[in-house]
Design a protein that fits this description.
Shape: globular
Number of domains: 2
Distance between the termini: 41 Å
Strand content: 25-35%
CATH architecture of the largest domain: 3-Layer(aba) Sandwich
CATH class of the largest domain: Alpha Beta
Order of helices and strands: EHHEEHHEHEEHEEHEHEHHEEEEEEEH
Largest sheet: 7 strands, antiparallel
CATH superfamily of the largest domain: CV3147-like domain
Helix content: 25-40%
Number of strands: 17
Structural class: alpha+beta
Strand order of the largest sheet: 15-14-13-12-11-17-16
Radius of gyration: 19 Å
Length: 362
């Protein structure tokens, strides 16, 4: 059965989703405020366990796509989130049973909640990444070899594109990324519709609940005057990698992505060392004194050393005191096919994957 999401859980989801954004996905702050306002106006949103889906139910998979730096100026609201969903329903001639997000990381954790606020649809407690990734072919439905079309990309005005056919996931991603760039590097999407059976078999299940639980642990640690960074590490079976001060940030918005690098000077136990992280919306690889330490699909998260709050690639600033942690990836991402989609080579790094948790791959 669907259950109402408590107002307090919106706050917790914002904390947890931002950590799982691994630097990308866009800050959930603005979308969180929209959802809070909906609740203050008397609305409620229901969370549906994926097991409650019938195999032939139709589920809308939604997202905001683009460059996180642009999200700060061009924010998503409920009507903008719903727009591609209604276009997809008209194209299919069929209504959706529920809505889910493509990624639980960052602002996209709230995207189905905004659709729900505008439509009354329940939100499926699942996503297709278990974190945030920058490209469509990096979702579990792609790794599983499912269809990638039809796909709707909308902007805030009266511009919408339906991609009815594509020769492959990467080709579809290139087309929609060009469209998004023309829209000003921000768009909302309704991705290829999924059956209830496909969601239950191939999605990352109950990931919104996991993000809420992570946010709850961070808030508990703050209230108890404990270290919220280490509370996150303990709650998510992660590892602390580096503590330091932001010395330099290089970033550029190109082709609808925010690309660049972050340089840290070590502090405390890491004094005298340097740590460099590269990113494409999300953090992808990290080197300590030139030696590779961590790579995608391990989750690389940069947190404020005091508050434990996640810091996105668009929000990095000189002088910030941060701690870099790694969290384990979803099992599907560590398979041979998963690494082909989300391993370091998928981001242009000519290196193999070796997890900080003791697993190696292609």
């Amino acid at each position: 059965m669907a259950r109402p999401i408590d107002a307090d859980e919106l706050d917790l989801l914002s904390i947890g989703a931002w950590i799982l954004g691994t630097g990308g996905g866009g800050s959930p702050h603005a979308s969180h405020l929209v959802a809070r306002q909906f609740y203050e106006d008397g609305g409620r949103i229901e969370l549906l366990d994926p097991d409650e889906l019938a195999d032939d139910d139709l589920v809308a998979v939604v997202s905001t796509m683009g460059a996180p730096l642009v999200f700060q100026e061009r924010m998503t609201d409920a009507a903008f989130a719903l727009k591609p969903v209604r276009i997809m329903e008209a194209y299919l001639g069929r209504r959706f049973r529920a809505v889910m997000t493509v990624e639980v990381g960052g602002c996209n954790a709230f995207q189905p909640l905004l659709v729900a606020a505008a439509s009354g649809l329940p939100v499926v407690d699942a996503d297709a990444m278990g974190r945030a990734y920058p490209e469509a072919q990096m979702q579990t439905f792609s790794i599983a070899g499912l269809q990638m079309v039809p796909h709707v990309v909308s902007d805030i005005r009266d511009n919408d594109v339906i991609i009815p056919t594509a020769s492959g996931w990467r080709e579809m991603e290139r087309v929609r990324r060009k469209v998004c760039t023309e829209y000003g590097s921000v768009a909302t999407t309704c991705q290829a519709p999924r059956s209830g059976a496909e969601v239950k078999r191939h999605a990352v299940l109950r990931s919104l609940s996991q993000a809420i639980a992570l946010g709850r642990e961070v808030r508990r640690a703050r209230a108890a005057h404990e270290d919220p960074v280490m509370a996150t590490v303990a709650a998510a079976d992660g590892q602390r990698l580096f503590t330091g001060k932001v010395m330099d940030v290089q970033r550029r918005t190109t082709e609808g992505f925010l690309r660049g690098s972050l340089t840290l000077a070590g502090q405390d136990a890491d004094a005298g060392a340097a740590f460099v992280i590269e990113f494409q919306n999300e953090f992808t690889i990290g080197r300590r004194d030139g030696t590779m330490i961590v790579t995608t699909p391990d989750l690389i998260c940069v947190l404020d050393s005091i508050s434990g709050e996640a810091i996105g690639t668009e929000s990095l600033r000189y002088g910030q005191r941060v701690t870099v942690i790694a969290l384990p990836s979803q099992p599907i991402h560590r398979t041979e096919e998963g690494l082909r989609h989300v391993g370091p080579r998928a981001f242009g790094h000519d290196i193999g994957f070796r997890s900080v948790f003791g697993e190696a791959g292609a």
